[in-house]
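Problem: given the chain below (605 residues), write out its structure.
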Amino acid sequence: MNLLQQKLAESLTIFDGAIGTEIYRRNFFVNASFEQLNLTAPDVILDIHHQYLKAGAEVLTTNTYNANSRRLAKFGLSEQTEAINRAGVKLAREAAAGKALVAASVGPVGEPDSDQDRRTRAELLAEQIRALSDADFIIFESLRRAADLKAVLEAVAEFPELVYVPSFAIEPHPHINDSATIAEFMEQLNASRPCPAPTAIGLNCGGGPESTLGVLEELTALTQLPVIVQPNAGQPKGVDGRMIYMTSAEYFSTYAKRYAMLGAAAIGGCCGITPDHIEELARTIKPLMQAEKRALPALEVKECDLKPEVPLAERSRIGCKLADGAFIKLVEITPPRGFDLTGTIAGAAKCKAAGIDAVNLPDGPRASARISPLVTALEIQRNAGIETILHCCCRDKSLIGLQADLLGCAGVGINNILFITGDPPKLGDYPFSSGVFDVDSVGLVKIQKRMNQGVDLGGKPLNAVTKMVIGVGADPNAIDLEREYRRTCEKVEAGAEFIITQPVFAPEALFVFLDRIAHLNVPVIAGIWPLTSLRNAEFMRTEVPGVVVPDAVMERMAADESKEAQREAGIAIARESVAAIRSRVRGIQVSAPFGNVDTALRVLA
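Solution.
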């Protein structure tokens, strides 16, 4: 296994962004060779590499994209081809200092300028490959045409041990200027059976973050190789004589998360993507993906140490209703940002009076800081007389701290818990806070299952079994529904006894998911969010992970400018969703938007 294979197998890998964009930002203009700077301004190139490494890049790409002798000849530099390429690798290697891999960048050769240049594209590429031999691997970037890939495959045939990645730039409108589709490229690649075979497949440049998403979805169905995604920042705009890319770091990281959900093995950037974008990517995506890949430490538990679980119907009122097959009605109330629980308890009391079965309490939704949901649950159960379903999030506490909370819940009679992995801190109000993620929701369910059998996470016996009803979340709106299905199966296999979904605005998506998991025979409670305004609908659509608000819903919310009319439209849409899905699920959970319990109760009335 080569170094790139090892890195991609470990976890989601962060590549760097554009070199050319950073050179341009430092007032070097395009009428000169950027690659020559490897020799004439090495400190500039070294600084760019250092900035990407500091931002969190785990792969640094050399400043050699146009460093083939044909391209360099336009600047009278063809005699320096080898020196420029070797210097490019040396600078990246120096900056990496053993902390990152070095990818040698090779761009398309281009057409000859004169009849005297009779060398084939493959010969020119082979010349550059030899000069880049000290890199960890070569990435052939921005392959747009079949002829580009053909030249690469002919060139690599001379190097049986070469580690390389062909990376395709798929235009938003293929076949313009002979550009190929990803399906055509993969057909060409599979038919040629190259030797050596590529280690991974790349997507770079192309039409920006959004259009790259569709290409990635198509590519993952066409290959079993790891996929490296490096979109550009969209189309630049002229501002005061400069070409500026307008894609924000936050927008880029939002799409990066979607790439990861579709199975991308590595994510970086191309034209217009800067160290700021890569820093946002590393902070936002890396912790979440690491949490999903971590395995729960093995527990050495002898079967004789395990005690019988308390029957589901005897653990709580929710457990009883689940066991009896009764329909369940829940209201989700978010704990307040302050410490005054008077309003929250009053809202919970209203829910009890309205016949609601339990109040669902999120744990720092969207990585926000609020009063402890455990304290909130305890006060609600004591003062409002209604059961709670407490969220237990993996983000903020170590395994020891999580077990302490679970034991605390058992000790005070909080016996319904929804286990979630949690959003990374970068998504919330405290982006520099550290996410712990010792374990994900699957691992946490396993821990609670053991505790229900009288054993803690270290395999040590408890003085009594816990009586927790184990719930998990699911996202019927997931871009990669197959991955969401696999995760749901893992949660149920680990011990989940019920599921609460993300808010549903399109019943059809929920039905597809329900059909997919029907064989699991686990009760599903559908989440509903009553939209309060057009602005709220836009926020839910663009800012809340796992929520899809269809165009038809947006149109209804926009039909009337009055806030009251929009609020009524949101309630009507929620009630229609409940009516459409009620017969297919075991319960409904309605969120109290902005703490407005009355709105949630109107939906459930």
